[in-house]
Amino acid sequence: MSLWLTAIILGIVEGLTEFLPVSSTGHLILATELLGYDASKWAIFNIAIQPGAILAIVVLYRKLFWDMFTGFFRRDPVAIAFVRNLLVAFIPAVVLGLAFGDYIETLLENAVVVAWALVIGGFAILLVEKLAKPKESGGVAKLTLRQSIMVGLVQCLAMIPGVSRSGATIMGAMAMGVDRKTAAEFSFFLALPTLTGATVLQLAKHRDAITSNDMGLIALGAAMSFVVAWAVIKAFLAVVTRYGFAPFAWYRIIVGGAALIWLTMR
Fold first, then answer.
1. Residues 147-158: what's their mean pLDDT?
2. What pLDDT shows up at residue 18?
3. Residue 258 in contact with residue 46, Cβ under 8 Å?
């Protein structure tokens, strides 16, 4: 298969899955395996195209971010609370990412870990959907400091490929009484520092593995992830507000189960 076509496919997969509770990393690992490649050799590419999906959040919520940015310097209480909640939720990922980064990288090469994580995560989503009693929270700025810290801690589970960063943060927030829409948006916003930090760290660490020939492929993959993520984010909020997260849970269970069967038989 052409490398350019591979870049397009992986960019689409990244855009489709980055902000859904289905694990973008897990899907990218399985996709590279299905395409017949060694997942470890495409790991850096998969990380390098994440800024495309991140940019989609910035574009879609540009007015909110600008209001929070300017409001923070005006010492607006809502803006200060918004920034505080994102920062305290981001810190656990920084600490654990730096401490266990090398071990996490080894898991990025294991498709079996991904498949099991998809299945287990699917059942976890169903459990939270059944037991959680979310209340209208009034937006990210209204979350308490305790809720923000707990969401940050739960997000660290996503360091295991297949767990899903968005799934962990959304379910963690809902388990603490946050409504679906606010939980999803908090997950979107928390992606900015988390994914940006992880991308910069990994690209700096593996900069020698990226050649000038790779830049065109990365740019194409990132562009595809931006376009697809932009469309997915808008549709996602409408779906979860009406149907909840159960459809994504069953999707995870089916895909993870199929992947386990395929990995066992190949």
1. 91
2. 92
3. no
